[in-house]
Here is the input.
Amino acid sequence: DEIIRAGKPVSPSNQGEFSYEGKKFSWYLVSSPVDKNERLYRLDLTVSWQEARKQMTLNRYAYTALK
Here is the structure.
């Protein structure tokens, strides 16, 4: 949403942490141009957290087009 409102990538990457229902989550977001005109961007999101003794990771991606 921020990329669409700004009309350009806001920053090449973002990261942070948040808590939900007593669990701590870390996230990392990368936006990268797909085409040479930089009108289409791929957004890659990685969220990770500790589950019992395992490190869990969820990866998702989406595309956004600039006007």
Observations:
- The beta strands are 13-20, 23-33, 40-51, 54-65.
